[in-house]
Structure formats: C-alpha cells, structure tokens
Amino acid sequence: xxxxxxxxxxxxxxxxxxxxxxxxxxxxxxxxxxxxxxxxxxxxxxxxxxxxxxxxxxxxxxxxxxxxxxxxxxxxxxxxxxxxxxxxxxxxxxxxxxxxxxxxxxxxxxxxxxxxxxxxxxxxxxxxxxxxxxxxxxxxxxxxxxxxxxxxxxxxxxxxxxxxxxxxxxxxxxxxxxxxxxxxxxxxxxxxxxxxxxxxxxxxxxxxxxxxxxxxxxxxxxxxxxxxxxxxxxxxxxxxxxxxxxxxxxxxxxxxxxxxxxxxxxxxxxxxxxxxxxxxxxxxxxxxxxxxxxxxxxxxxxxxxxxxxxxxxxxxxxxxxxxxxxxxxxxxxxxxxxxxxxxxxxxxxxxxxxxxxxxxxxxxxxxxxxxxxxxxxxxxxxxxxxxxxxxxxxxxxxxxxxxxxxxxxxxxxxxxxxxxxxxxx
Length: 425
Prior knowledge:
The chain is an alpha/beta fold. The chain folds into 3 domains: 9-48 and 194-276, no CATH class; 55-193, Rossmann fold, CATH 3.40.50.2020; 280-405, Orthogonal Bundle (Arc Repressor Mutant, subunit A). Helices cover 46% and strands 12% of the residues. It has helices at 9-18, 25-32, 40-48, 55-69, 90-98, 102-105, 107-112, 143-153, 172-178, 209-223, 261-264, 278-302, 305-311, 328-342, 346-353, 357-369, 381-408, and strands at residues 51-53, 77-83, 113-115, 129-135, 138-139, 162-166, 169-171, 184-186, 192-193, 227-228, 234-235, 249-251, 314-318, 321-325. Strands 3-2-4-6-8 form a 5-stranded parallel beta sheet. Strands 5-7-9 form a 3-stranded parallel beta sheet. The chain has a two-stranded parallel ribbon with strand order 1-12. A hairpin with a 5-residue loop joins strand 10 (227-228) and strand 11 (234-235). Helix 12 crosses helix 17 and helix 14 crosses helix 16 (357-369). The protein is globular and about 75 Å long. It starts with 8 loop residues before the first helix and ends in a 17-residue tail after the last helix.
C-alpha cells in the first residue's frame, strides 16, 4: 500500500488524540490510503467527527448508571444482569467491564447482583424483589434489542418490579424504538446521536453533509452486500451502517456494524481504522507480533546485558552450554511497554496482541514483579530506562542496516589492470 498522504504531523497527532489513541498514527495513514488524494481531506473530516469510548469511560458510565438505578438496595432486593448477545460479542464484553465497576465490587451489591447469560436460569426465591438489567454497549437501529426483549423477556416480565436497559451510547432512532419496552433506558443524553448525514445533524452542517454522504456511500456499496427488493431493485441498505444507521461511534475494542463500514470493514483489501470482526483483529495482531519478534531478535544480538536479563529469561541447556531465549511472558511485557509508551489503552493493547484482558493483567503483574510496572500499572523509572535502552539499540541497528544495504546496491567503478598480457608481465 502506498502511503503518499499529504498530512502534517500536527493534524495526525490531533486525529490520534481524537480517536483516544485506540489506533496509531500509522494505522490512520494506512486507512487514509484507501482514498483517492482528492478525497483525503473529506476522510479526515469524517474521522474528526467520530466518538470513541475507552475502557475507563465505559466503566464510569456503567457505574453511574447502576448507581442512579440503585441508590439504595433493600434487604430483599435482587438484581439480575443479562448481557444481550452471544458469548464473545459486545454484550459479554460490556459485562466484563461492569464487573470492574465500584458498584459491582462493593461486597453488599455483589451479594445481591447475579450475572446470567440466559434469563432461563433465574432461580426465583420467595419474598425477594427482582429487577432485571439488560446490558449492551450500543443501540443501533434497536432491532436486535427489540427482538431479544419480545422473545426472551416479554413472557417473564411480570416477575420483575422493573426492567432497565443499560448501555454506553446509541442512535436516536433506536433509542426511541426500544424506550417503550423498558422501565427506563439508561444512556447519558450526550451519548445519544443523530444520523451522521441527517439534515439537522451538527456533524457536517446543513449545507455540506451531502458530499460526505456521497463519499461514504460510494465506498460503502463496495464494502457491504447488496439486497434485492420484491420489485427486483438492487439496494445497499447497509452501505452507511446496518439498516442505514449512519453512526460514527466506536469503542476501544471495536466498532458496531451500525458505524459507517468505511471505518471497520476489511472487505476486498480495504484497510479498517477500528476493526469490527475478530478476523480483522487477528490479522492486526499477527502483523504486530511479527514486528515485535523482529525487534527482540535485534535486542538479543545487540542489546545490553540489562535488556537480555529482562526480556530473555527462558533458559535452555544443551550439554554444558546454556542459551537464553524469549518466552511468552517476556514477549508480552515488552509489547505492553512499547504500546503503552505509544499511547495505546489496555483494551487496544489486548486487541493488538490478540489476548484477553485477564491475560493483560497477568502480564502486568509479572512485570510488576520485575520492577517494570508500579501499582498503577504504569512504567517505573527502571521500566522507562529499559524502554529507552531498547529503543536506542533498535534505532541504531536499523540505521546500520540501512547504510550497509545502501552501500551494497551502489554501482561501483572498478579499474581492472591485468598482471600479465600475452604471457608477459
């Protein structure tokens, strides 16, 4: 992919900050490379209007929502929390973040809160009052939530004194669609969005939104499947997000399908900005792991003794000789150091490495034992020293390799004078 993109470093840094460091400046450049040079400025405007939620923001929103629903929990009250969707989808992801909130961690609340993958498994007790919380990260069209409610919740709704939906963000149309189903839909008002290309939307202005919509639809048609109406007319209902949601919202761990496909699709060679599918994330993780392994091979050969002691702890004995090598923990700790210094959030680091958040926490603990991370999961002075040492070593080696290769391919003028001519010296 050619990265001949005309963009200054200041703009690139602003975009990376706007996206909460969920994606790197290089990934932004690769994404911009999907577009023609004349379209790059419009593409920059589009991602400048995106809203991305990080892990900390998600936990804070969830905690505030549950605190507002349950300011005081009575002795007989029980809370059932049910994520919408299959295991590994956004519902179970948001459940994990809920378990990290101070509301859930409070012993009193934890004893009265039950997390269930299915409402069929509720064990009702006499003299107990039950409140049901359906949990998901995003309301798009509202169709999935409505179908889930009608199929699974409607038949048992009389068992609860209240049924709430708790989410992080959503689209205005979807919010209106599901609101009549619940006691309350708990999403901050500032996190409810209009369609990106609505004529009353503030994203691109009343007069200017048409050119942005045209660009997104042009590529969105190529990135999504067509449908055929009863009259035989071909339509691209998802070219601007599932069921024409026109969303510009993403999360640190991925994008909803309601978001514009140009943001998350990888179809036909398109480079995603914030991927949606696990296949995309696995591909990113694979490429990143390759680059880390390359750097570690340089550090093993040319790094300082301090670097070799901390990142090559695996020992192999062959006869009387002992060799050091990098193991999974060494690899992961080095990767976390490198990504955290670049500004990636913990969830984004997990995505880059293709690991679970619990694995990330385990590697942080291992790094803490080595004096690399402190109690706040940040680099200690020793950890920072290791990072700077490794960075200098890699940069020095890369420059050396560059100049060596450069010299190898230069055409040299060689004057060859034979020592003998016609048998005479």
